[in-house]
Automatic annotation (TrEMBL):
Protein known as: Uncharacterized protein
Lineage: Eukaryota, Haptista, Haptophyta, Prymnesiophyceae, Coccolithales
Length: 233
């Protein structure tokens, strides 16, 4: 097989034997990537929108990107498995995966060995995306946190060890951001050399988009309105 992971090889070998479905027959895709990142000459791809639910990799060989050999994950609730691997990001030589339906962000080595689940994330937060800038991770939930008064999907600022702050679009006068798919932090260098942080926000599903500017003297938000239990792997 293409990969050094038997589960992925079996899954994609089975794909070759799948017959074409008649028009109108309900079926899910066998391959559906949700995000991609790059680390040390290798592309890392998550396939959370299909039953496979893997991290797959591709390497450039003779000017062509080819799959393999590294892969891991697969659908399931055991440590290192995924239930909709939706976002992926490389930082400090490690790979971080947003495991959406388990409400987790998992940290792996670049070889796919599970290190930990990031602590202090809200229960029921369906994390779609994870990114990093300077000293903080920035991640977003798909929808408002359940059992809270919030009406919009939150954005989390996380140190890697604890939840530092929460951005609620509804509190900023953007009530249409009820569902979020991606949030990306971006610094712009000003003429005086200072750096201004912006958050680029993609709201699902009707093409919503917002840009938030960080104000250093603004009122800091704080986590509230939910319970946080033990962090399971």
């Amino acid at each position: 097989g293409e990969f050094n992971f038997a589960e992925a090889n079996a899954y994609y070998s089975e794909r070759q034997r799948t017959k074409k479905c008649p028009l109108g027959t309900p079926h899910g895709p066998r391959f559906a990537c949700t995000d991609v990142t790059y680390l040390n000459g290798r592309l890392y791809v998550v396939t959370g929108y299909c039953p496979g639910d893997f991290v797959l990799t591709a390497e450039e060989r003779d000017g062509t990107w080819q799959w393999g050999p590294l892969a891991w994950g697969g659908k399931g609730d055991a440590p290192g498995k995924f239930n909709t691997a939706h976002g992926i990001f490389a930082f400090d030589g490690h790979i971080f995966v947003a495991n959406r339906e388990r409400h987790q962000v998992l940290e792996f080595t670049e070889a796919g060995h599970l290190i930990r689940c990031l602590p202090d994330l809200p229960d029921s937060a369906r994390i779609c995306n994870v990114a990093r800038t300077d000293d903080y991770f920035v991640m977003n939930a798909l929808e408002p946190i359940q059992h809270t008064p919030a009406k919009t999907a939150p954005i989390f600022v996380h140190t890697g060890e604890r939840l530092a702050s929460v951005v609620e679009p509804g509190e900023l006068g953007i009530p249409v951001l009820k569902h979020l798919h991606h949030t990306w932090p971006h610094y712009v260098t000003q003429p005086d050399g200072s750096r201004q942080l912006y958050l680029l926000i993609h709201g699902w599903s009707a093409g919503k988009f917002a840009v938030l500017k960080h104000e250093a003297d603004g009122v800091r938000s704080s986590p509230n309105g939910w319970s946080r239990g033990p962090v399971p792997l």
